[in-house]
Amino acid sequence: MNKFVGTGVALVTPFTADLKVDVEALRKLVSFQIDNGIDYLVVLGTTGESATLTSEEKKQVISTVVEENKGRLPLVLGVGGNCTNKVVEELKSMDLSDFEAVLSVSPYYNKPSQEGIYQHYKAVAEASSKPVILYNVPGRTASNVLPSTVKRLAEDFKNIIGIKEAAGDMVQAMNLINMVPEGFLVISGDDMITLPMVLAGGHGVISVIAQGFPAEFSKMVNLGLDREVNEAYKLHYEIAPSIDLIFAEGNPVGIKAMLAKRGICENTLRLPLVKSSPELTEKINSFVDNF
What we know:
- With 291 residues, the chain is of the alpha/beta class.
- It has a single domain, classed as Aldolase class I (TIM Barrel), CATH 3.20.20.70.
- Helices cover 46% and strands 13% of the residues.
- The protein has 12 helices and 8 strands.
- The protein has an 8-stranded parallel sheet with strand order 7-6-5-4-3-2-1-8.
- Helix 1 (23-35) crosses helix 2, helix 3 (84-93) runs parallel beside helix 4 and helix 6 runs parallel beside helix 7 (170-179).
- The radius of gyration is 18 Å and the shape is globular.
- Its EC number is 4.3.3.7.
- Pyruvate binds at residues 47, 206.
């Protein structure tokens, strides 16, 4: 699945000041990614505030991205939740023809056992007409998908092709890379340790910061994949302070402030998220000005 090697971006959902989906800003965001070297796009992931969107708004986001993309980049659709039956129903009922894969977050809040996680993803794999990328983000889900569970899923279901690994744990990431079958994609979901994960044998990233600095971050990832270590780390350390900034008050709070500064969309979020504080906004604006 070489189309998912490199830099993917988890797109935000731009909103207007009156909290409607901002279609024109979304088009601008998609074009900004394509024009600056991003390899694939993730639509309606958690960064896209998908939990706050209605079914009709999700359809609107999908149609807008598909129309603007015009088949230029592979698209991945976020389909996940903490009720397995609902996820299965959604996968069976959705038209996935415009997507190359689905990204499915591990169930949150419920805190399932490893067996529960396995059975959840077994149901997802059997319901999906497209390849599945697992998504492990313990900081948000309150449970950790262990490398042994990932290995079991990878061996048992050929349409489970990879994992977005966002535990922020390099030891776990290395164990995972070492344990999974050859060809199984280990994709960083943590912007700060993307480069070391790539150098350890990972396949790239599904990134948040990359949609603010798509050319620079994707160049860093490509340098890492090519083992141009010194030049890659030079870029990493230039970008790194902005990663801390955009996550300081939660995601996608900071990246929306950055995209507003870059003229892509308004700095507007839906409750329970609120826009970045004046202090953080000033720091993000200053970083962009001086980058």
